[in-house]
Amino acid sequence: MALDIARVRGLFPSLSDGFVHLDGPAGSLVPESVALAVGATMQLPIGNTGGAFPSSVRAGELRDAARGAMADLIGGTPGGVVLGPSMTTLTYVLSRALAKTWRAGDEVIVSRLDHDANVRPWLQAAAAVGARVRWAEIDIDTCELGAEQYDELLNERTRLVAVTAASNAVGTRPDVRAIADRAHAVGALVYVDAVHAAPHIPLDMAALGADFIAVSAYKWCGPHVAAVVAAPAVLEGLHPDKLIPSPDTVPDRFETGTPPFELFAGVVAAVEHVASLDSDPVAGRRERVLASMTAVEAYEGQLMTRLDQGLRAMQHVTLLGAPARRTPTVSLTVEGMSPRQVTEELARRGICAWDGDYYARELIDALGVSESGGAVRLGLAHYTAADEIEHTLGVFERIRS
Fold first, then answer.
1. How far is CA 59 from CA 42, 45, 52, 83, 259, in A?
2. Is 239 helix (H, G, I), strand (E, B) or coil?
3. Element spanning 219, H or E
4. Cβ atoms of residues 245 and 231 within 8 Å
5. What long-range pairs does 314-320 form, CB within 8 A, spacing at least 24?
6. Helix, strand or coil for residue 226?
7. 22: nearest Cα among 396, 321, 336, 272
8. Which residues have CB under 8 Å from 204's CB, separation 6+?
9. Residues whose CB falls within 8 Å of the CB of residue 50, separated by 6 or more in sequence, listed in order
10. How does residue 280 score in pLDDT terms, banded at 50, 70 and 90?
11. According to the CATH classification, is domain 35-274 in 3.10.20.740?
12. Quick one: which of 308, 304, 306, 276 has its CA closest to 289?
């Protein structure tokens, strides 16, 4: 299927502000269907889960529907979907639970490519039990994360490998399956941060070889709800800190406090939005998600090729890295201007873009641009139009110190 960009853009009332929204890696726009789903749910009586009355039953149905939608997005099992407010929060929960199974001298592997939410929780959990941390490094020129280096990093003491499915800063898509196969060969678990990958490519948890996979709905047109998905049997072996009266079943025992049930309706609507990009009325939601995201990947790839080539042709613009497989995300610097000066100028000319390190602190440090304010990030989405790319290139052509 080919993406109908005119139809897609018509689903987003927020595009009427006239700006070019290249800030998607920090949070996407929300289609009308998602906003309506959340609003309609808040007009209904909703209790907490566990009661015998209708509003309590409704809350449980909202939670279960969100788990099912998240599972369809990444090819998981609803019974293994842990819901929470953010990937960072959930990764802290899982890291602490996993660390209870580690001993002094055990090892974990993190990478310089990752968002800090898939780095810092593991470093802190390892320090708490005396485990050793090993680092997978990037190629500074390309920003590739070579899978072959894991042959030297892994050993029989490795307990966990944390790796991103796509860099939120430069878009690099490492060969997660090759890394996972190496990790599994020594008995290690693999925790995949797919937060930035999910808006841009079809995801399949089994194909990636992920034991845990994390996603956040606000990156793919949903509300601020995240999930970590694992096989229920894997979760059964973990025991997070929790209140005594709260459920001890899986996945409930990983979810602390009363959740935002109305936002769960938005999660379902967001997955339905993704699935609806494929108009096949017969296929199931999982099949439609895969077809839709395949079309999204192809469409965004064409726009990214134009943007990347156009920027690289400008002598005053320097792009960070040149990964062979990437999401439509690029970080850059402009000669003689700080990243904040660039994004301020972009904003004046109707373009939304981020500057800084975007929480990819280890990567930005490794690339040597932290002291100058980091870099400027441009990120495309499935609602980005071709003429917006041309406008952006025209603005960059005129930006000078």
1. 11, 9, 11, 14, 10
2. coil
3. none
4. no
5. 314/396, 314/397, 316/399, 316/400, 316/401, 317/396, 320/143, 320/169, 320/170, 320/367, 320/369, 320/375
6. strand
7. 396
8. 74, 75, 290
9. 56, 60
10. confident
11. no
12. 276
Tokens linked to 370: 């932290």
Question: Where do you find CATH 3.40.640.10 in the chain?
Answer: 35-274
Q: What pLDDT is stored for residue 1 in this prediction?
A: 76
Q: What is the mean pLDDT of residues 278-291?
A: 88
What pLDDT, in 10s, does the model give residues 172-229?
999 999 999 999 999 999 999 999 999 999 999 999 999 999 999 999 999 999 999 9
Structure tokens at 200: 């841009």
Give the containing element (helix H, strand E) for 163: strand 158-164
Contact between residue 375 and residue 355 where contact means Cβ atoms under 8 Å apart: yes
**Number of residues in the chain:** 401
- What would the pLDDT profile of 54-84 be if each residue is shown by its tens digit? 999 999 999 999 999 999 999 999 999 999 9
At 38, list the tokens.
């959340």
384 touches 300 (CB < 8 A): yes
For the chain, give every residue range classified as CATH 3.90.1150.10: 5-30+285-398
CATH number given to 5-30+285-398? 3.90.1150.10
DSSP 372: G
Sheet (strand 329-334) strand order: 317-319, 329-334, 375-379, 354-356
The residue whose two tokens read 């041309």 is 390
Secondary-structure breakdown of the chain: helix, strand, coil percentages, each rounded to the nearest 5: 45, 15, 40
